[in-house]
Sequence to fold (387 residues):
Amino acid sequence: MLTSVLAVSAAAQAAAVGPRFYGDPPDDHHAWAVHDGHRPQPKAVTPGTFSTADQAGRPPSDAVVLFDGTDLSKWQGDKGAPAPWLVKEGFMEVLPGSGQIRTRETFGDCQLHLEFATPRQVEGEGQGRGNSGVFLMGQLEIQVLDSYQNVTYADGHVGAYYGINPPLALPVRPPGEWQVYDIVFRRPIYKDGQVVDPGYITVFLNGVLVQDHTPLEGPGGHMGRTKPGPFPAKGPLSLQDHGNPTRFRNIWYRELPPRPAEGGTDGWLTPEAAMAKRQETAAMLREQAAKLADPANPVPEMFGWFESLVYAPDPGAQARAEQLAAAYVQGLKSLAGESLAAKRDEVRQVRDVFRYLARFKYLPESFPPKVAVEQLIREQGWDQRRR
Ligand code: MG
Fold:
């Protein structure tokens, strides 16, 4: 019973959900054809809802919720002590002097959402107004500050990658009002001491872009310039206690898929990575093709072997595919009248596949079965429109 369930699942996996022999094939830097029917479907996510001034929205279905307004169980203070900040009426509030808090769980690349409100009662100026901060992986700070009609150094405003890059704009709300951060964070990737990807930070503040894929230059910080360097694989999210009772609500993140430099198979790949994934797809298609063997109907198996060649060459697969093609043409020759006419659409489909394979040099234009089906289609007038 279990075996049959697995078999169905494997077959379902192998079945293309989009066109085959259609777009430009995989190449040195792409594991997939254009419009590849075998390319994995994006996962379904139920979107959340937007927040209002009074009410936090609902996170999307795949989000990891770090704070839902009820408790700080996912957070800790210094040295692992319980997080000392206040929780009331659906938000947390910095308890000045109690120190920063950080998440118990650690994570790396993410889409992070959080909302904050600086104190309604304005005290201080410059960096002293509603200062807090969001520390990605406990390291680089995306500043939280009451920048509403408040002058300070540009790389210290809300929306700044603190000490490194000012926000592109200041789309701020007055003190006391809830403001929204949506952050996309990609950590630096190093291999053998060499930077492969510097890492990036993209930030929207209240829906307005304030950091545009800004390359990382280390953690940043007060007064000192920092240098780019590797990050650990994972780290906590930290929130700063800068002595102001700033509030937070609705904190969640979504893990991001790996980039090509980390084994991701979408995007511009190295030739080695592209070929590794192509080989994997080719092996899956060959396994599937072998199961489709049917002397009464060789077309599905033939397509399977030919399709595998689009992903990776293999002399055995090529020979089997060509053998099936020759047998198919041989079979057509024994047909006449109604039984041949019934093959019209199938033969035209086979011809189109052969043409695709010849166009991209998997077969020569002179491949005898291709020449034979083209000739048959001409003789039968199968390309002419039916009246
Ligand atoms: Mg700060």
Remarks:
- The mean pLDDT is 94.
- Helices lie at 2-14, 271-291, 299-311, 315-333, 337-341, 344-359, 368-380.
- The chain has seven helices and 15 strands.
- The first helix runs from residue 2 to 14.
